[in-house]
Amino acid sequence: MSASEGQRVSGLYEFGPFRVDSEKEILLRAGDPIPLTPKTFQILLILVRHSKEVVTKDDLMKAVWPDTFVEEANLSRNIFMLRKALGESPQDHRYILTVPGRGYRLAENVRLVPEHELDIVAVSHATVKVQVAEAKPWRWIALAGIFVLVVAAGTTWFLRHHRSTVLTEKDTVVLADFANSTGDSVFDGTLRQGMAVQLEQSPYLSLISEDRIQQALRLMGQPVDARLSPEIAREVCERTASAAVLDGSIASLGSQYVLGLRARACTTGDVLAEEQAQATRKEDVLKALSEVARKFRSRIGESLTTVQKYDTPLAEATTPSLEALKAYSEGWKILSSSGPAAALPRFKRATEIDPQFAMAYSNLGYMYANIGETDLSVESTRKAYQLRDRASDAEKFFITVHYHLDVTGNMERAQQTCETWAQIYPREMPPHGLLSGAIYPVLGRYESAVEEGKKAIELDPDFGLAYNVLALSHQALDQLGEAENTLQRASDRKLEIPDLLVDRYQIAFLKSDQGAMDRVAALGQGKSGTEDVISNQEAFALAYSGHLRQARRASQRAVDLAQQSAELERSALFETGAALREAFFGNQPAARQRASAALKLSKGRDVEYGAAFALALSENSSRLQTFADDLERRFPEDTAVRSNYLPALRGLLALKQNEPARAIELLQIASPYELGSPPSTFYGFFGSAYPIYVRGEAYLALGQGAEAVAEFQKVLNHRGIVVSDPIGVLAHLQLGRAYVLLGDKDRARTAYQDFLALWKDADPDIPILKQAQVEYAKLQ
User: Which residues is 261 bridged to in the sheet?
Assistant: First the structure.
């Protein structure tokens, strides 16, 4: 790349058929310029100046974006654009080579053009100009005519055989707020929401999610509900490695309205595509917005087939009412800054203005669920499902899957819906997130949950819950290192949500790291939505080591904090967990008291199941069968009820009636999903592996020691699923009892010792501890 001595050098480089002019920032092929964005050209120039040398990704990012934090995807996107400009195919990287784990290098030799060669080029160009000037006028007329015909024919052929592709299927875009110059506030926020609904129907186009936008705004020092002006949206676009900003506008033209939508490249600000439509009156604005979106999708490169197939007009996809859509959009805005309780009235208002607004009902159901109003949540979600034909195809998937998750509980149907959703909309994160966090764990398919969790993070790396559910799936597989790495990735992105703190506490517990548990608990102090859950976790951990008095205090604190925050369902789940601990440990009066307190707070599915299980452990009563029958009547399709709750509860009732063989028969239906994490674990943190534990007790009652050993060992082998549930520590004791039945005193003693070691400092008056000490003494 160095010039010979005595030669003047220029800023012009050559490799293959290309010339790179560093001064004018131009890439040429056979004298024709190839358009590149400034950032892409900088990357090319760096690679050219380091011909055949590896340039690391870090070095490239520091050189091209010296003062800005950007994602590695920014670099990947520019490399993709550069390869496209050089004519490379995905299978043939002739010029830009990827060096795995390191960076990139230019495959061709580069020659720096000496300046005297530029003079020759200039002379030859001058000669051509003279020859052109001396040509006869009549010849130029003929040539011009031929030229026009050729261009016309070529243009016709091109238009018939090619469609302009402004954005690719890998690009993401940021939707800015609409500029409203009409003076009518009903359009503020409303048009952006409507346009988002329209564009999200496209399987081709991918809008950056609100979570990623809010995370970028935080890093920019902006409030999460800041107005997305074109300038702010462009910075969000750059930080998220997106391709373009879509900024819309609405203006008055006499009594009419003009709507526009324009796509600008993030890096250059160049206009990539734009579209306009007019509305003759205010009531026609939403129709015009749908028209703009449809034409725009076609203009950016989406196929006419998908544009026509997935194009429900906005009035049918959401609502024909501007006022209802405004209330709906305000609900989303408030949700991002103030939470579900504050946003709920706006979604409710949207349904009052338009009682046929399906998505408003669906989101209202979500808000009710978050504040513990289970019955109202079910009512709203069911209403949304009844109205699902008044929604776009993408929104129908959302409504349907939430109906099965929150109303029927049919996880098999929810799974089918999500898998179809992901197939039709491969760039949508929600179906992968729901499969990972809400569906596959209940079915016990943790490997599948891990794969879907990774896809969710890849599609939306700023969605905090995706890291939470991925960490939990790794934990369930006893992959604690992977779980910790996942949480660290979330921390690196400055994502902090209560669930991630709970994950850290559970991992610290599984590693027996009391110091880490204490540090996490300290971090949760004073944090709404976190402190009560951490206190409940502390209660389980304390009870696991036999410190039941301290556990009661921590549990009561969790209940009180939840009630102070009006989280009645969560408070009831905390009471249910406390009732189960008392029941498992033999404190029957305390178990009955806590179970009754839980049922006074809620008749929800998981509370009723847990309270009934605690009562079944602590009393013989005809009302226990009533609980089981009520669950079956209310939740006939519910996968967790059918395949976990009812088999465990009825098996336990059969044991109480001295029918262990019947208990084992009743528990057979639980086998496919018995290692799943039922919904009761999501905030209650109880219920995992209960069918296995009850089956083990049934085998003990039958005197079948080997079968009992297999069941209790199964509990002990899955600590990442059971975590701090009481059955995790009691399985050691039950294992000892099973070995006694087998006459294996050595293994029996070891199992009892494991239990007593965990309870070495336990409260001495716990009934199950006294019983275990007596049994162990008989083995000496």
Answer: 248, 275
Separation CA 758–CA 766 (nearest Å): 14
**Residue pLDDT, tens place only, 326-358:** 999 999 888 877 888 889 999 999 999 999 999
Which residues, 6+ apart, have CB-to-CB distance to 313 below 8 Å? 287, 290
Beta strand 244-253 with 173-175: parallel, antiparallel or unpaired?
A: parallel
* The residue to which tokens 């006459």 are assigned: 743
Q: Rounded distance, CA 546 to CA 581, Å? A: 10
Q: Which two tokens mark 192? A: 């952006």
Beta-strand pair 179-180/244-253 = parallel
Instruction: Please state, in angstroms and rounded to a whole number, the distance separating the CA atoms of residues 1 and 10.
Output: 12
Closest CA to 570 of 372, 331, 284: 372
Residue 316, both tokens: 């049918």
Mean pLDDT over 662-673 rounds to: 95
Instruction: Point out which residues pair with 249 in neighbouring strands.
Output: 179, 260
Question: How high does pLDDT run on average in the chain?
Answer: 87
Residue whose token pair is 């990139």:
104
Burial 522-534 (b: 16+ CB within 10 A, else e): ebbeeeebbbbbb
Cβ atoms of 704 and 666 within 8 Å: the answer is no
What gap in Å lies between CA 731 and CA 714, rounded to an integer?
Answer: 9
Handedness of CA 427, 429, 434, 440 (dihedral sign): positive
CA 313 to each of CA 258, 259, 318, 320: distance values in angstroms, whole numbers, following the listed order: 18, 16, 9, 10
Stretch (H or E) spanning 586: none
Which residues are CB-contacts of 237 (< 8 A; sequence separation ≥ 6)? 173, 174, 208, 243, 244, 245, 266
Least confident of 201-215, 567-581, 586-600: 201-215
Half-sphere exposure of 403 (CA within 13 A, CB side): 18
Torsion of Cα atoms, 560 then 565 then 569 then 572, to 10°: 0
Q: How do 26-29 and 18-21 pair as beta strands?
A: antiparallel
Element holding 549 (H helix, E strand): helix 548-564
Q: Which two tokens stand for residue 273?
A: 């595509």
Each residue's pLDDT tens digit, 432-469: 999 999 999 999 999 999 999 999 999 999 899 999 99
Distance of CA 355 to the CA centre of its chain: 30
CA pair distance 212, 401, nearest whole angstrom: 23
Report the 10 Å Cβ neighbour count for 710.
15
Contact 415, 435 (CB under 8 A): yes
Please check whether residue 700 is in contact with residue 738, taking contact to mean a CB–CB distance below 8 angstroms. yes
One DSSP character per residue, 740-773 reads HHHT-HHHHHHHHHHHHHHTTT--TT-HHHHHHH
Determine the pLDDT at residue 167: 82
Q: Which residues contact 629 (CB under 8 A, 6 or more apart)?
A: none
At 152, the pLDDT band (50, 70, 90 cuts) reads very low
Q: Other CB atoms closer than 10 Å to residue 635's CB: what's the count?
A: 21
The burial class, CB within 10 Å (0-12 / 13-18 / 19+), for 339 is middle
CA Rg, the chain, in Å? 33
In the structure encoding, which two tokens stand for residue 656, read together?
A: 């109480």
What is the largest distance, in Å, between two alpha-carbon atoms of the chain? 121
Average pLDDT over residues 524-552: 94
Distances (CA, A) of 56 to 42, 105, 226, 522: 15, 9, 36, 41
For 255, the enclosing helix (H) or strand (E) is: none
- Residue range 482-492, pLDDT digits in tens: 999 999 999 99
Q: Collect all residues with Cβ–Cβ distance below 8 Å to 153 and sequence separation of at least 6.
A: none
**Encoding tokens for residue 162?**
């090619």
